[in-house]
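Issue 218. Parser rejects a valid record. Input:
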Amino acid sequence: MQIMQDKISVNILLLTLVSICIIFLQQGEINRDGVMYLTQSQYIVEGNWDKAMEIYNWAFFSILIAGLHQLTGLSLQYAAHMINVALFVLASFFFIKNVTLVSLNKTNILFATLILLTSIPLMDDYLSMVLRDQGQWAGFMIGVYGYLRWIKSPQWLWAALWQAGFLFGTLFRPECLLFNILLPLSHQLFIVKTERIKAFIQSVSIPIVGVLLLPILWFILSVDVSAIDFARLNEIILRPSRFLNTMLQPLAIETQNYFLKVLIADYALSFKYFFLSYVLVYKWAAGLGLLHLFLFGYAIQQRLISSPYLKALAIFFIISSIISTINLYTTFVLANRYWVMNFWIVYIVAAIGLGHLWRTIEHYKHPKQSWMKWGLVSIMTIFLLNIVIDKPEQHFEQQAGRWVKEQQLDLNNIYFNQSRVAFYAGVLAHDQVDLDTAVNQIQYPYLMIRYQRFKEFKEIKHYQAIQYFPSREQPKVVVYQRAGNEKQQSIK
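Output the parser choked on:
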């Protein structure tokens, strides 16, 4: 047992070091949502809670960032990265525990670690970002581990662990609460065979305790229930209802071709279902990649996972897929990270498949056995190197921010139409006004305009474009200077 714990510790240390290295290689780049969380954290540090909650009304992640910032003195961005690394390591620890549990200790821990290290979504795409999703994924992995232990050994401890795990994930993203709602029902339908009433009471034990304690807490703390904002929790009910409504609404597609317009009108809903279903499947397959898809399919084909673990993983796979589907059909936004809970389940199976494939090759009496072994090692190494040495070029928004700093412009004299551009220039929390107000009323000396996709560069009255990023031919960020301001401040 101690040897197993030592192996887990070594692999967790390896994942931690690689995580820190990946963040270091990103050169301070930040995602758009990350700027929002940091801005909210800044307002929290300043004690301006009303302003903070205007930005986003599910602020637990931002509260953590602000707290660590005040506790350690780290910048808000570094504090956020430290929290994300800690949450990723926590998720990885329970991922490894899940692999050893489901494989009945037949899969070497190293193979579970390799699956994570070669995961492009986790290691290359999202680890360097400032994302509250890391907390959701950590809670998800804790919940999965507790549930898998509970179905084999239905004790109160394991029932409490899986419920607490998903509730922890809910603090970061409220979608995680769906597992607390749906698992007791699916458990009764597909898993439990005897002592159903006891199993159901165990599966809702934390909500029962919560219902009993809430009146006492409200009485002691004198909480005004009407002042509590349940907007994000309401999404659990409202978003599925919107999903059902949008299922009957065709996509708003414009075309000048008469025959194509007729075709779309006649098959509007069919087109919508096929198109969005294609997007779902494509995002899922492209996010996982061929290597992990192959290992996942190999493990399923070889029947390496026995019941009830296979049934339990299938339930998690289906529920996480439903969440992604509802998100796409209601918001028409499907970032790959919405699939990541599903990916974690696939990775558990893929890790078991990788371990079995390696053992099979080792015991395969064939003249080219060594070639097969080193071929597999080479493929894994290529995936790992692609993540570790994938040092990005400096983003054009970063170039624009660096230019502002080099010119030593007064940030109070610059209008920013996007928060991330402002962040790179050195401005975090700032009041947003519309462009018309900035140009005609406030009359900022400088405008820094970020042109979004499908938006074309345009002239602005009383202003002259003086800098283009990344280039004049592809102007995505443009700096404008107000006419007559040249004498007030010359550009270096």
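Fixed in the parser; the record now loads. The chain has a mean pLDDT of 88.
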